[in-house]
Write a structure and sequence with these properties.
The structure holds two protein chains of two kinds. Chain A is α/β, with parallel strands linked by helices. Chain A contains 13 helices and ten strands. In chain A, a hairpin with a 5-residue loop joins strand 2 and strand 3. The chains are: A alpha/beta, B mainly alpha.
């Protein structure tokens, strides 16, 4: 009796495996991604953001998430659904970002996350696109008369715990300046302590310093951002490793927005460009070619993104215009920045 | 004083007959628990492996990316290992917990006795203290004291030549004997050195805020434990000592405390473990305790499972040691009774 049963089971199992194999074979050319399928079934993209980072991801008075990270997620949702509202934001602390992505809690992370080698080689995530080039900067009270970091021996330095601590150690080690680190878990306590003169210097992302100065209003003039900056902080969107098609969607959504800025296409004039004869424009807007379908999306995926979110420059302006932050490295390569769209062919 | 005849403690009573199955059952339960833990560990590491996440504790011996400056042992970035950074964090946590535990016990004892005082004013003040302190969340206590210390003047404004104490928003500095620059013993007074302040002893604003905030909060609970323990003694004990003409302090130290401590020990153990765990509030205001350093290490290495396992075992081990010490202290106490 038993052997027969086992045999029967084995046969069923083999049949199932064969069926699965056949499915995989037919599925491969159709360019499906398990993450994309899950997002479609759910009807919304789940995006990990910091949620309390001004200019990157911070809810406005209506509770709508605003900032360049929030819009980067919105662009992906628009590429998939043609609808920028189909995003669910999950606020993550810096320590949770990679874990939430690894565990499958979020589909993509745009959370002030710096692209580093070991995060890719050791943590099972992959960076798809840099949506902001940042660096470390130094903010001092104007009254202190500090003009250079070279003469700061013994100074107390306020910072956020984590990456800032490691970068401050590298920087001050290099210029051989002894300092006292005062690390805080989150921005609000850091800003309060700095304003109370707990520290001589604030060591923070240049972008965060710019928005902090903007929130101070008239008082912002009492503080100076030193001209020295340190390090490379390419803040990038990350996905789990192992779903290459999903990686493509995140990368080329960003690429389409940069390409649109290079071509001069904006959310306002995208309709006019629909009649353009430029082959690059026609491919990008899905009038010619199959760029969208090659990733499992609609033909007008990029036209939707540009029409509803805008090009990269529009997204940047929306996030940073009020902060007084210069666009700097985040300009197009043609204007002296680092942004450069890969050919959409 | 003739002690009342007491029943032996429950645990000391001879047990009902224990058969081999009792031990077998325990061994089986223990094995099942171990097996379950092993299975969890195995499944987790297999899953991490399949997602391309590095796992294991090898990172502990790699050089840390982040320095730890405000700790009994300094950790240099790029030189000292992650393991040393964890040790530095552990020492900071233990330093804070030990100081808090001591202060909370002293203040709590005073307030608890004050609530039993014959003086109505002292009773009312101590009752007010308990109600105010324990009804405000401990995090607010910490923020309150931190805000107060940050409102102190800067070191340059606070200093005066030859001062013994310098209380500034950079910390509290005290004169203390030590070796000066020329290698002679002298009183090291607080002095401003560029951006820095040198002194014999110094306390950072973060440590001070946590120490004062958590101590005053926990003291309210200790006070109630003390009051309840003393209140649990039969009235006869007090009447007997006063009949014998013993002084109030003799009554307290020789008769009341030895008996009350036995009652107070179990709730006090919980309170002490609670104080230790409350030291993790350090994260909120940037004191480099074990939790804060672990969070930084987690961000640096991305090895969440390992770091959280280290954090959990550290807090579990120290909490168990605290309860173990209190337990060991308890039975010995019975010998002090008359």
């Amino acid at each position: 009796m038993r052997p027969t049963l086992a045999l029967a089971r084995l046969i069923t199992l083999t049949a199932a495996l064969n069926a699965l194999g056949a499915l995989a074979q037919t599925a491969a050319p159709a360019a499906t991604s398990p993450t994309l399928a899950a997002v479609r079934a759910r009807g919304a993209l789940v995006c990990g953001v910091i949620g309390s980072s001004a200019n990157f991801s911070l809810p406005d008075s209506q509770g709508v998430m605003r900032g360049i990270d929030a819009d980067s997620c919105r662009a992906i949702a628009t590429a998939i659904f043609g609808d920028p509202t189909k995003v669910k934001y999950v606020s993550l602390t810096p320590a949770q970002r990679l874990v939430a992505l690894q565990a499958g809690e979020v589909d993509v992370v745009y959370a002030n996350l710096t692209w580093t080698m070991s995060r890719e080689t050791k943590s099972g995530v992959q960076f798809a696109a840099v949506n902001f080039y940042d660096a470390w900067g130094f903010l001092v009270p104007k009254a202190s008369g500090i003009t250079t970091t070279a003469k700061l021996n013994g100074a107390s330095v306020c910072m956020i715990a984590g990456a800032a601590e490691a970068n401050a150690a590298e920087y001050f080690g290099k210029i051989k300046v002894r300092y006292k680190a005062v690390p805080f878990a989150e921005g609000e306590q850091l800003r309060k302590a700095f304003l109370a003169k707990r520290c001589d210097i604030m060591f923070h992302d240049v972008s965060a310093i710019a928005s902090f100065k903007a929130t101070l209003g008239a008082q912002g003039g009492d503080y100076v951002l030193l001209s020295e900056t340190y390090g490379r902080e390419p803040l990038a969107g990350a996905v789990r490793k192992g779903d290459d098609r999903w990686f493509d969607i995140v990368r080329y959504t960003w690429n389409a927005m940069v390409a649109a800025e290079e071509l001069g296409i904006t959310s306002k004039n995208v309709k006019i460009f629909a009649t353009s004869n430029d082959p690059a424009v026609k491919r990008l807007l899905g009038i010619d070619g199959d760029l969208g379908p090659s990733m499992g999306l609609e033909k007008d995926w990029a036209a939707n993104v540009i029409g509803q979110i805008g090009n990269y420059g529009e997204m940047w302006e929306r996030a940073f215009a009020t902060s007084g932050m210069p666009r700097g490295a985040n300009r197009l390569a043609a204007d002296g920045g680092l942004l450069y769209a890969f050919p959409m062919q | 004083v003739t002690p009342e005849r007491r029943e032996p403690p429950v645990a000391r009573q001879p047990r009902a007959r224990e058969g081999w199955w009792t031990y077998a059952g325990q061994a089986l339960a223990f094995a099942a628990l171990g097996g379950l833990l092993f299975l969890m560990f195995h499944v987790t590491s297999a899953n991490l492996q399949s997602r391309g996440v590095h796992s294991g504790f090898a990172f502990l011996w790699e050089p840390a990316k982040t320095p730890v400056s405000d700790a009994p042992i300094a950790v240099q970035a790029g030189v000292d290992s992650y393991a040393k950074a964890f040790v530095a964090g552990a020492l900071n946590s233990l330093k804070l917990a030990a100081a808090t535990l001591f202060a909370a016990t002293c203040v709590g004892l005073g307030v608890g006795l004050g609530r039993l005082s014959p003086n109505a004013l002292a009773r009312a003040l101590c009752a007010g203290y308990v109600e105010v302190m324990r009804n405000v969340p401990v995090l607010l206590h910490v923020f309150f004291w931190y805000g107060l210390i940050l409102a102190l003047p800067t070191a340059a404004e606070a200093t005066a030549p030859g001062t013994l104490v310098l209380a500034s928003n950079r910390g509290i500095y005290l004169a203390w004997p030590g070796l000066d620059a020329s290698g002679h013993w002298s009183l090291l007074r607080p002095a401003i050195d560029g951006f820095d302040v040198t002194a014999g002893l110094s306390v950072s604003p973060e440590f001070a805020a946590l120490f004062v905030g958590v101590s005053l909060y926990s003291a309210a609970f200790v006070a109630e434990i003390v009051r309840a323990a003393i209140g649990s003694l039969p009235r006869g004990q007090w009447e007997a000592t006063s009949a014998l003409g013993l002084s109030r302090s003799t009554t307290l130290w020789r008769v009341v405390f030895p008996q009350a401590l036995r009652v107070a020990a179990p709730p006090l153990t919980s309170e002490y473990v609670g104080i230790f765990k409350n030291s993790t509030l350090a994260v909120a205001i940037g004191y480099q305790d074990f939790m804060a350093i672990s969070t930084t290490m987690l961000t640096d290495t991305g090895q969440a499972v390992e770091v959280m396992a280290i954090v959990m075992s550290f807090y579990a081990t120290v909490s168990l040691l605290v309860s173990g010490a209190m337990h060991a202290f308890g039975p010995r106490q019975t010998r002090w009774t008359l």
